[in-house]
Amino acid sequence: MKEVVFLVAIILVAGQCHGAEHGAEYPIYPLRMKTGAGGHYIPEISCASWRLGVEAHNVVDWTSIPEDCIGYVGNYLLGDQYRSDSKTVNQQAYFYARTLNFTDKDVWIFDIDETTLSNLQYYADHGFGSEPYNATAFNEWVELGEAPALPETLKLYKKLLNLGINIVFLTGRPLSQKAVTATNLKLAGYHKWMKLILKDTSIYHGKTAVTYKSAERKKLEESGYKIIGNIGDQWSDILGTNVGNRTFKLPDPMYYIS
């Protein structure tokens, strides 16, 4: 016991001395493996760790958010943090874009759902992703054409247009929803684009999003276009082949698409 106390004391002193070298007097305490009364985990902390795993693509192939994390995910999405996280990603995309020299063959790819358009109103009514995906109910929502823009992505879109970059929307929505999607985009503030690509299920039936989006990006490049940027909320938006010069991942703890 004496040896343990002595070791902890050394760590604390070393941490205080290290901080003092930089003009700080903050003590560095040993890592606490658990928090809360009695050393138990606090649910919100483990949910935050789960979301980190999701965004870092360490937690994969999940079908719904953990039941215990409904409140956490809801508060995250409806609070300031989701907007702030989206702002950071979009800002970095713009900082990168403005360093480039463009040609009329340069394109920037945007995903749609949870990237340019927000379905948060739908998911708020369906447990923020805790309920199993219901294609019928979601398609009914899409057909309303009322999804608002994600504000920070809309800002990036407008800035890229001002820089002279061609915009391509590449979405997993089926071709049958092309008209309502185009109308919704314009209603939300996305008035101009070079291409709007939706999934032809007769070609890509049973194929993953990675396979589909890789193939469509390859077609763009074979047509002579250069993908200088690519942004989406799913890892499947930015993995695979022909992903572009640089990719950007927006937060989305509500669902996972492979």
Q: What do you see in this structure?
A:
The chain is α/β, with parallel strands linked by helices and 258 residues long. It has a domain at 73-249: HAD superfamily/HAD-like (Rossmann fold), CATH 3.40.50.1000. 47% of the residues lie in helices and 11% in strands. The chain is built from 11 helices and 5 strands. The chain has helices at residues 2-21, 43-55, 70-78, 80-97, 120-124, 135-144, 151-163, 178-188, 201-204, 209-222, 235-238; strands at residues 106-110, 166-174, 195-199, 226-232, 247-249. A 5-stranded parallel β-sheet has the order 3-2-1-4-5, sandwiched between helices. Helix 4 packs parallel to helix 7 (151-163).
What's this entry about, in short?
Belongs to the APS1/VSP family. The protein has 258 residues and is an alpha/beta fold.
